[in-house]
Specification:
Blueprint lengths: L15 E5 L2 E4 L4 E4 L2 H4 L8 H11 L12 H14 L3 E5 L2 H16 L3 E5 L8 H6 L3 H4 L9 E4 L4 H7 L4 E6 L2 E2 L5 E2 L2 H13 L3 E5 L13 H5 L5 E4 L10 E5 L20 H14 L4 H22 L3 E7 L2 E6 L4 H10 L1 E2 L1 E2 L4 E4 L7 H18 L5
Parallel strand pairs: 3-15, 5-6, 5-7, 7-10, 10-11
Antiparallel strand pairs: 1-2, 2-3, 4-12, 8-9, 11-12, 13-14, 14-17, 16-17
Helix pairs in contact: 2-10, 3-10, 7-8, 11-13, 12-13
Protein name: Acetylornithine aminotransferase
GO biological process, one term: L-arginine biosynthetic process
GO molecular function: identical protein binding; N2-acetyl-L-ornithine:2-oxoglutarate 5-aminotransferase activity; pyridoxal phosphate binding
């Protein structure tokens, strides 16, 4: 128990020492296969040499001037993001919740409307605007009054979404796969309908790619997998491979509404963060990397669906790319503890879902070792079919 830190995380009895690739070492010398990637951030693996080199080089040049200066690094990264996303304007921030706050502000200012439609079991952050957009009562508890103007619609319910998105709606914000909500993929018909109705009624269509972006699902952004046409996209976590950085990207015409003084952040887009992002995006563009993600994904789903067939406690395996949820009939905390004892760290997504988010660059050998441990932990904790 820390003497001085606020206990906002239920910390494990493990003290981080170092990490390389897909392996974490604790101060007592134990090594763990990382099946959480720093909560979905270290997509390119811990301490990737190209990212370390880029950040170290910039560190000696300077890590902050201010956003009153023009930064070549910002322009270069914005160009890379525009090229890969198809969205022309970029605002840099420091975290996913900041990017979502910026998106909500921009939507209200650009449309002159107040209402934001989001979805039950969504997660968009913990600051007031993004928390209000989060469709989980437990996240709201103790923080009333929340900002007004937020409506929650059942996820994967296209008919209800069509009813709730109106001419008063400034924006619809949605995750293509709900991460914190249980690794729940959006259905194609649902996401298509939300996109269509938002466009028809003049609402901005915002896709939160904070967890799904930067190759996590096998595409640079998950909306590309679905063929969606967002007006605004937010991204963080994997964007800087664990370095605190985020971006809100939007259509060219939206820049009219975010002029000088309309929004800002002191440290957003600093040169050190831009060095991390630039190197990360260069790795993302490496030929074959995303194909390898898809191949690893097939292996994971094949292994876990066989486990699903054999186990009485695993009911479903879902997700995309290397964002996988193992749905169980019982609380997964004992399984996660057993996995940790055997050398794998991973996270839950709700009470009954194990969430696997390994680095995209994990080796086939290390992936197989980790999956063996997951399988053993589930079998030892629960029961298997005769």
């Amino acid at each position: 128990m820390s003497k001085h830190l606020f206990p906002t995380y239920k910390r494990w009895d493990l003290t981080f020492d170092s990490a390389h690739g897909s392996e974490i070492t604790t101060t007592d010398g134990r090594k763990f296969i990382d099946f959480m990637a720093g909560i979905g951030t270290v997509n390119m693996g811990h301490n990737h040499p190209e990212i370390v080199e880029a950040v170290e080089k910039q560190l000696h040049r300077g890590w902050h001037g201010s956003n009153f200066f023009q930064y070549d690094q910002q322009e270069q990264v914005a160009t890379l993001l525009a090229d890969v996303s198809g969205l022309d304007r970029v605002f840099f921030a420091n975290s996913g919740t900041e990017a979502n706050e910026a998106a909500i502000k921009l939507a209200r200012k650009a449309t002159g409307r107040e209402e934001i439609v989001s979805f039950t079991q969504s997660f968009h952050g913990r600051t007031y605007g993004s928390m209000a957009a989060t469709g989980q009562a437990k996240i709201h508890e103790g923080y009333a009054p929340l900002p007004a103007g937020f409506t929650y619609v059942p996820y994967n319910d296209p008919e209800q979404a069509e009813k709730e998105i109106t001419s008063d709606t400034a924006a619809v914000i949605v995750e293509t796969i709900q991460g914190e909500g249980g690794v729940v993929p959006g259905e194609q018909a649902f996401l298509d309908k939300v996109n269509e109705v938002a466009n028809a009624r003049g609402a901005l269509f915002i896709i939160d790619e904070v967890q799904t972006g930067i190759g996590r699902t096998g595409e640079p952004f998950s909306y590309q997998k679905y063929g969606l046409r967002p007006d605004i996209v937010t991204v963080a976590k994997g964007l800087g491979n664990g370095f605190p950085v985020a971006a809100m990207m939007g259509r060219e015409d939206l820049q009219t509404y975010f002029g000088p003084g309309s929004h800002g952040t002191t440290l957003g887009g600093n040169p050190l963060a831009m060095a991390a992002v630039h190197a990360t995006l260069e790795i993302l563009n490496t030929p074959g990397l995303l194909d390898a993600v898809e191949n690893k994904s097939k292996r994971v789903f094949h292994t876990l669906r066989n486990l699903c067939d054999d186990s009485d406690i695993v009911t479903e395996v879902r997700g995309a790319g290397l964002m996988i949820g193992i749905v169980c009939e019982q609380p997964v905390a004992p399984i996660l503890t057993k996995m940790q004892e055997k050398g794998v760290v991973a996270l839950p997504a709700g009470e009954k879902v194990i969430r696997l988010l390994p680095p995209l660059t994990i080796s086939e050998e290390r992936l197989a070792q980790g999956l063996d441990i997951v399988t053993e932990a589930i079998k030892e904790t629960g029961k298997t079919k005769a």
